[in-house]
Specification:
single chain; 681 residues; alpha/beta; OB fold (Dihydrolipoamide Acetyltransferase, E2P); Rossmann fold; 24 helices; 22 strands
Amino acid sequence: MDIKSLKGVGEKTAGLFQKLYITTAEELVRYYPRDYEQFAGPVSPERAPLEEIAAVAGQIGGNVSTRHVRGLSITTFEAVCEGVRVHMTYFNMPYLKNSLKRGIPYIFRGRVQRKGVHYVMEQAKIYKPEEYMALVDQLLPLYSTTKGLTNNAITKAVRQAVSLVDLSVDPLPDKIREAQGFCSLEEAVKQMHFPTDRETLVKARERLVFDEFFRFILVMRRVRDVSEQIKNAHPMIEVAQTGRLIEALPYRLTDAQLRVWGEIQADLTSEYTMNRLIQGDVGSGKTILAFLSLIMCAANGYQGAMMAPTEVLARQHYETLVNMQKKYGLQIHPVLLTGSTPARERKEIYAQIESGEADMILGTHALIQEKVVYHNLALVITDEQHRFGVRQRENLMQKGNAVHVLVMSATPIPRTLAIILYGDLHISVLDELPADRLPIKNCVVNTSYRQTAYKFIEKEVAAGRQVYVICPMVEEGEMEELEDVGSYTLKLKQALSPSIQIASLHGRMKPAQKNRIMEEFAAHHIDVLVSTTVIEVGINVPNATVMMVENAERFGLAQLHQLRGRVGRGDKQSYCIFISKSERPETMKRLKILNESNDGFYIASQDLSLRGPGDLFGIRQSGDLRFVLGDIYQDAALLQCASDWADRILMEDKELSGEEYRTLRAGLEQDMINEVDFRTI
């Protein structure tokens, strides 16, 4: 059913939905809320729980004033709420000066803070009393939006779609649904969008997360059955060039690196094709192992391809290889191929790849374009960030014959979960950091520390260092007191010295713009980069020594740890400052795990042990393995359950040929085209 068949969705609105990859009503009903907003009745400021979302009722007391500071408009006024005065502050909302009227009742919703004897609120949402009271005790869906498409517009369209789309055919076999006590698909989808209460929401989410894991694991099992035990079509021998390079490097490989390198060599020289995952923290030395694998491949007369998640990182890999080639006299011919490679240069690179002159091809997804014809591709190395569907993987495989696959991951997945996700893929773990790497110094603080943090940032910049500041992505419908990139950049320019070069970066920028900013930061034309988590996999800047994360309570620890890995890459002491707006004991306890260790696997396991049903919403733990709803950490028990059922079903009926699996089988065939294949590429 075309989305334009919904009332109120014309060509323009349909175009906006298309930006969210939604073209049909069926796709819309699967576009689940990213969170929910629950409204409680207003309370007095004195009774409002500090640092938590609350509503207070009151009137404007005094004048509403607006001042402008370095491009930032600041509107302030006093609200009198049950006899208590609350100082209200708004950034970049100058229209409030004319829209707010004295003597008229309002309800203000946000975080109530106490500074000395005064109560303050920043960016509190403003409602008319009757408007607010109609929302009390409801769970209202919040969807990821795009410019021009509001949360309200999506909600209205979803409500229509849910009533029109036939969800009565349930692909999950009855025996699984009954055994697990799951609700029907139809009930789960409806409650996911418009929950009756939190309990039904949790049950609906549980059913849908199970579906997601179950289908994913079934697809992976079927892919594994096809791909495992493939004879090695590119047999290799160990070469002296890699050994000489290891000896010549200015640093000694760790015992873990040497162990994993031995495992890779054994794979490449074995009877069967390599299918290996290297897990290791940022900075554990995965990249040099990738380079050694490419060198061994080239020395054996084959081609190797290495795909990076960003153009900037691909270029950094290429430049590093070229420098190594010159410094150590390596007999290699690397080329770089990305989306921005000029047409004339691209044509030359295509010719070098096809002739076999180029034996190392580095780049982004441009490496799998139809025009790229490989001479004798034997090895593909990819970062976990690249998520290709099975059909795309097959297209790549067709460019070579049974190529060796090496996947690199910085996601600290506990081994029990990794085995489920990656099937029989051989897993190597780099569990040791280089000896000369200085441990990152961490601190977890509340917002009162912010001014001190700014002074520290100025000190580091004065010493020639660079800084990352991370803010969560703020979308329409979220509480405005969150630190969004745009507003925060303006605030930071106001707080820091004018001589400090500050720039911002977020995922909604055009790729060319993102690449330019990351390149400028890498070249040290920018001192402080304010960014969303888009930099999680972006660049390697050894000169960056400070990472400050705002609203740290909004992130999972695994993701915070990966963000932290952006610093500490050089020989200077590095620091991480995690600022939390929540001072709840359980929140601070969770965040302070980051003070205890720089070991990603330890952090992930500790976080996992602290999380429970109450943490199902609001925090995304797994920064990389982003299922639509499921999170491999907080939903680890469901992941295990789905794996057990998948194994049981396939043992009974390997081809899923039974009538009870007909709908499931049809869905899986579609998933084989669209589903993400984390296990290989």
